[in-house]
Design brief:
Largest sheet: none
Number of helices: 9
Distance between the termini: 53 Å
Structural class: mainly alpha
Radius of gyration: 18 Å
Strand content: under 5%
Number of strands: 0
Order of helices and strands: HHHHHHHHH
Helix content: over 70%
Amino acid sequence: MAQTKNEYYLRRIHSLLGIIPIGAFLVVHLLVNHQATQGAEAFNKASSFMESLPFLIVVEFLFIYIPLLYHGLFGLHIAFTAKENVGHYSLFRNWMFLFQRISGVLAFIFIGVHLWQTRLQKAFFGKEVDYDMMHQTLQSPVWAIIYIICIIAVVFHFSNGLWSFLVTWGVLQSPKSQRVFTWVSLIVFLVISYIGVTAIIAFM
Protein backbone atom coordinates (compact mmCIF):
# COMPACT_ATOMS: atom_id res chain seq x y z
CA MET A 1 0.00 0.00 0.00
CA ALA A 2 2.83 2.42 0.90
CA GLN A 3 4.51 1.87 -2.45
CA THR A 4 1.22 2.49 -4.30
CA LYS A 5 0.64 5.67 -2.31
CA ASN A 6 4.19 6.85 -3.00
CA GLU A 7 3.68 6.18 -6.70
CA TYR A 8 0.52 8.29 -6.58
CA TYR A 9 2.33 11.29 -5.12
CA LEU A 10 5.35 10.87 -7.39
CA ARG A 11 3.04 10.93 -10.40
CA ARG A 12 1.33 14.07 -9.10
CA ILE A 13 4.69 15.82 -8.70
CA HIS A 14 5.75 14.62 -12.15
CA SER A 15 2.53 15.98 -13.66
CA LEU A 16 2.81 19.34 -11.89
CA LEU A 17 6.46 19.91 -12.79
CA GLY A 18 5.66 19.20 -16.45
CA ILE A 19 3.52 22.34 -16.51
CA ILE A 20 5.05 24.48 -13.76
CA PRO A 21 7.88 25.31 -14.19
CA ILE A 22 8.97 23.20 -17.20
CA GLY A 23 6.07 24.02 -19.50
CA ALA A 24 6.26 27.71 -18.63
CA PHE A 25 10.00 27.70 -19.35
CA LEU A 26 9.41 25.98 -22.70
CA VAL A 27 7.03 28.71 -23.81
CA VAL A 28 9.37 31.50 -22.67
CA HIS A 29 12.37 29.79 -24.29
CA LEU A 30 10.61 29.41 -27.63
CA LEU A 31 9.36 33.01 -27.52
CA VAL A 32 12.94 34.18 -26.97
CA ASN A 33 14.11 32.00 -29.85
CA HIS A 34 11.31 33.40 -32.00
CA GLN A 35 13.03 36.78 -31.80
CA ALA A 36 15.41 35.33 -34.40
CA THR A 37 12.65 35.91 -36.97
CA GLN A 38 13.35 39.63 -36.44
CA GLY A 39 17.06 39.17 -37.10
CA ALA A 40 20.26 38.33 -35.25
CA GLU A 41 20.32 41.56 -33.27
CA ALA A 42 16.80 41.05 -31.92
CA PHE A 43 17.59 37.51 -30.79
CA ASN A 44 20.92 38.48 -29.21
CA LYS A 45 19.20 41.31 -27.34
CA ALA A 46 16.50 38.99 -25.97
CA SER A 47 19.08 36.33 -25.11
CA SER A 48 21.30 38.87 -23.35
CA PHE A 49 18.35 40.06 -21.29
CA MET A 50 17.69 36.50 -20.10
CA GLU A 51 21.39 36.06 -19.31
CA SER A 52 21.36 39.26 -17.23
CA LEU A 53 18.65 38.08 -14.84
CA PRO A 54 19.87 38.11 -11.20
CA PHE A 55 20.87 34.82 -9.58
CA LEU A 56 20.45 33.14 -12.98
CA ILE A 57 22.43 30.00 -12.18
CA VAL A 58 20.43 29.43 -8.97
CA VAL A 59 17.14 30.01 -10.78
CA GLU A 60 18.18 27.64 -13.58
CA PHE A 61 19.02 24.82 -11.19
CA LEU A 62 15.98 25.25 -8.93
CA PHE A 63 13.36 25.87 -11.59
CA ILE A 64 14.75 24.25 -14.75
CA TYR A 65 17.48 21.61 -14.34
CA ILE A 66 16.30 19.85 -11.18
CA PRO A 67 12.61 19.75 -12.25
CA LEU A 68 13.67 18.64 -15.74
CA LEU A 69 15.81 15.85 -14.34
CA TYR A 70 13.03 14.57 -12.09
CA HIS A 71 10.33 14.89 -14.75
CA GLY A 72 12.55 13.25 -17.35
CA LEU A 73 13.73 10.30 -15.25
CA PHE A 74 10.32 9.56 -13.77
CA GLY A 75 8.84 10.02 -17.23
CA LEU A 76 11.19 7.34 -18.55
CA HIS A 77 9.99 5.07 -15.76
CA ILE A 78 6.39 5.66 -16.85
CA ALA A 79 7.25 5.25 -20.52
CA PHE A 80 8.75 1.81 -20.04
CA THR A 81 6.40 0.43 -17.37
CA ALA A 82 2.92 1.90 -18.04
CA LYS A 83 0.36 0.15 -20.21
CA GLU A 84 -2.62 1.41 -22.18
CA ASN A 85 -6.00 1.09 -20.49
CA VAL A 86 -8.59 0.52 -23.18
CA GLY A 87 -11.29 -0.17 -20.61
CA HIS A 88 -10.85 3.23 -18.95
CA TYR A 89 -9.89 5.51 -21.83
CA SER A 90 -10.90 5.64 -25.49
CA LEU A 91 -8.78 4.19 -28.28
CA PHE A 92 -7.83 7.76 -29.26
CA ARG A 93 -6.61 8.53 -25.74
CA ASN A 94 -4.58 5.34 -25.65
CA TRP A 95 -2.89 6.40 -28.90
CA MET A 96 -2.24 9.83 -27.37
CA PHE A 97 -0.72 8.13 -24.34
CA LEU A 98 1.54 6.09 -26.61
CA PHE A 99 2.65 9.22 -28.48
CA GLN A 100 3.13 10.96 -25.14
CA ARG A 101 5.60 8.28 -24.07
CA ILE A 102 7.45 8.29 -27.41
CA SER A 103 7.66 12.09 -27.51
CA GLY A 104 8.82 12.12 -23.89
CA VAL A 105 11.75 9.80 -24.59
CA LEU A 106 12.63 11.85 -27.69
CA ALA A 107 12.36 15.09 -25.72
CA PHE A 108 14.62 13.75 -22.94
CA ILE A 109 17.36 12.87 -25.44
CA PHE A 110 16.95 16.10 -27.42
CA ILE A 111 17.10 18.34 -24.35
CA GLY A 112 20.34 16.65 -23.29
CA VAL A 113 21.85 17.20 -26.74
CA HIS A 114 20.59 20.80 -26.87
CA LEU A 115 22.08 21.56 -23.46
CA TRP A 116 25.42 20.17 -24.62
CA GLN A 117 25.34 22.27 -27.78
CA THR A 118 24.48 25.49 -25.94
CA ARG A 119 24.73 25.95 -22.16
CA LEU A 120 27.48 23.40 -21.59
CA GLN A 121 29.53 24.84 -24.45
CA LYS A 122 29.43 28.15 -22.60
CA ALA A 123 30.14 26.61 -19.20
CA PHE A 124 33.07 24.43 -20.32
CA PHE A 125 34.50 26.27 -23.31
CA GLY A 126 33.41 29.88 -22.84
CA LYS A 127 31.41 30.04 -26.08
CA GLU A 128 28.65 32.62 -26.42
CA VAL A 129 25.08 31.34 -26.68
CA ASP A 130 24.01 33.70 -29.43
CA TYR A 131 22.52 33.79 -32.92
CA ASP A 132 25.80 32.73 -34.56
CA MET A 133 26.02 29.61 -32.39
CA MET A 134 22.57 28.40 -33.45
CA HIS A 135 23.13 29.50 -37.05
CA GLN A 136 26.28 27.41 -37.31
CA THR A 137 24.56 24.36 -35.79
CA LEU A 138 21.54 24.60 -38.07
CA GLN A 139 23.57 25.11 -41.23
CA SER A 140 23.69 21.32 -41.29
CA PRO A 141 20.52 20.00 -42.99
CA VAL A 142 20.66 16.96 -40.72
CA TRP A 143 20.67 19.04 -37.55
CA ALA A 144 17.98 21.33 -38.96
CA ILE A 145 15.69 18.36 -39.57
CA ILE A 146 16.48 16.88 -36.15
CA TYR A 147 15.69 20.19 -34.44
CA ILE A 148 12.39 20.65 -36.28
CA ILE A 149 11.23 17.10 -35.53
CA CYS A 150 12.31 17.32 -31.89
CA ILE A 151 10.77 20.75 -31.32
CA ILE A 152 7.44 19.41 -32.60
CA ALA A 153 7.81 16.36 -30.34
CA VAL A 154 8.57 18.51 -27.29
CA VAL A 155 5.61 20.80 -27.99
CA PHE A 156 3.31 17.82 -28.49
CA HIS A 157 4.50 16.36 -25.19
CA PHE A 158 3.70 19.66 -23.45
CA SER A 159 0.33 20.36 -25.11
CA ASN A 160 -0.96 16.80 -24.70
CA GLY A 161 0.50 16.83 -21.19
CA LEU A 162 -1.76 19.80 -20.39
CA TRP A 163 -4.75 17.51 -20.91
CA SER A 164 -3.24 14.81 -18.71
CA PHE A 165 -2.35 17.38 -16.05
CA LEU A 166 -5.90 18.72 -15.84
CA VAL A 167 -7.35 15.21 -15.70
CA THR A 168 -4.82 14.10 -13.07
CA TRP A 169 -5.59 17.10 -10.86
CA GLY A 170 -9.36 16.70 -11.21
CA VAL A 171 -10.05 19.80 -13.31
CA LEU A 172 -11.38 17.86 -16.33
CA GLN A 173 -13.80 15.37 -14.80
CA SER A 174 -16.63 15.06 -17.30
CA PRO A 175 -16.19 13.38 -20.72
CA LYS A 176 -17.47 16.57 -22.38
CA SER A 177 -14.86 18.79 -20.72
CA GLN A 178 -12.16 16.31 -21.70
CA ARG A 179 -13.33 16.33 -25.33
CA VAL A 180 -13.42 20.13 -25.42
CA PHE A 181 -9.95 20.46 -23.97
CA THR A 182 -8.62 18.00 -26.53
CA TRP A 183 -9.33 20.69 -29.13
CA VAL A 184 -7.82 23.37 -26.89
CA SER A 185 -4.63 21.34 -26.53
CA LEU A 186 -4.54 20.92 -30.33
CA ILE A 187 -4.65 24.71 -30.76
CA VAL A 188 -1.90 25.09 -28.16
CA PHE A 189 0.17 22.52 -30.05
CA LEU A 190 -0.27 24.27 -33.41
CA VAL A 191 0.48 27.78 -32.09
CA ILE A 192 3.58 26.84 -30.07
CA SER A 193 4.86 24.54 -32.83
CA TYR A 194 4.61 27.44 -35.26
CA ILE A 195 6.61 29.66 -32.89
CA GLY A 196 9.28 26.99 -32.42
CA VAL A 197 9.63 25.89 -36.05
CA THR A 198 9.72 29.42 -37.48
CA ALA A 199 12.51 30.21 -35.02
CA ILE A 200 14.51 27.22 -36.30
CA ILE A 201 13.98 28.36 -39.89
CA ALA A 202 15.10 31.88 -38.93
CA PHE A 203 18.34 30.54 -37.48
CA MET A 204 18.98 28.71 -40.74
